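Records of this kind hold a single protein each, on a pair of labelled lines. Below, a sample record shows both lines together.
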Amino acid sequence: MEQLLHYVWKHKLFPLKELRTSSGDAVEVIDAGLHNHNSGPDFFNAKIKIGGTLWVGNVEIHCKSSDWYAHGHDKDAAYDNVVLHVSHEIDADVVTSSGHEIVQMQLDVPPRISQNFNELIATDHYPPCYRIIPDIPGMKISSWMSALQAERLEQKTEAIARRAERCGGSWEDALFVTLARNYGFGVNGDAFEEWAYGLGLQCVAHHRDDIFQIEAMFMGQAGLLELDAIPERYRDAALREGYFTRLRNEYLYLSRKFGMTPMDASRWRFMRMRPQNFPHIRISQLVTLYYNRRAGLSSLIECTSAEQLRDVFRTCVTPYWETHYVFGSTSCRTEKRLSSRSSDLLIINTAIPILFAYGRHKSDSRMCDRALALLGQLRAESNHVVRMWKACGLEAADAGDSQALLQLKKEYCDRKDCLRCRIGYEYLKNR
């Protein structure tokens, strides 16, 4: 209820009856103030006319006025400049830490708003606001999509900055960790990130000119050179082939040299996954990419088009994996290159966020602008979320739009945070 009261106050969706204080003075809300999501009063610098006198100050909102004491505001000087206390139920007088009594006003949520809010929260039909989407003006939809796209990119920027900090300030290493995570394509994302952090790229760099040693370290650190990591039905064949044993022996030597410890191979997921996405294949593609020095930070920064970025991420597997998906199990020979769709997903989730984050780090607005422009050059992603929104009347024209729709689902719909959503606002206001 308190969240809904905040919403009603913020957007001034008041009942039709005249607003009055608990003592009967007329209240006119000129400016609801700035919504505060941190500690302190709920709204800063509101402008309110009470009984003909203009007040400028803060507003605090509670379900019941006695919550003022339950939250300890009567002992907190940060609340001494509250000029109006708004409650759904007034059951007590309230005072500041200095003993000054605060003017109070009862605020009722209009029945229509309350009914629509309860429907949004309770309905099982997803998304609950789908009925009104076709009726929302295109300008409002476009504005909201732009805000969602920026919000998603900001979140990715923060995650990349944290990786750079964890990597001792190395943006090259942060790029590799981000790339590795996205090579998990969702299912194995966490495992790939854990693997990348534990890889020790400074150690691998000593052997960057030897692709076999790179593969030994990459596969070994992933725990995939442990015999138990091979399905039992393929173990004998893997040992007969000899490649597994050669890699394992090389890794044992290198791991002793650098003090490397492999991760638990059980972290990798294989169930209900196409063989093309098996960790062995994705790691081998990363081996080739790393060996060829294609996807470095300088390479990404120099790219000005989506096609150039596709060239950067173009890779294949090492020879053994052209005929295998796991050790010991043969398959038809293929280079197992990234599909165009997978390549575009890496650009959307790795290259563009890195470019934007590094531009922020360097205070280079042109780099940030280029990242946003590149999103517009890429086709929209194709997944169940984007298709669902299309059925509701929100169609993605490019990758920027599809990123916005993913953000809308994850951060608003899944959390039932309709009060912060502009579509939810239109639903509550107009329905």
